[in-house]
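Human:
Take a look at this sequence-structure pair and walk me through the tokens.
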Amino acid sequence: MEKLIEYSKINILRLVQRANNLGLIDNHNENDYADYIHELWTSMLKNKELGEEAKRVDSIMGRGDSIQILSDTLEDASFPELEFY
């Protein structure tokens, strides 16, 4: 299980970096944090470039854990363009 968690963390970090390059990170600043994280994950799942990998992580970890890892990743990355950091 530990290897699956590490795999998911690494892949979500990559997804966040790619989502930032695609401008998806910026598009959600109007919402409160919980809504923002859920909508960001949903947009990653639906995105042509990110969807396959996001769905793979989602199927391994489940929706709740995937969103928690995404949240932790954003906190650790400290994106300056996010208003709530």
Remarks:
- Residues 2-22 form the longest helix (21 residues).
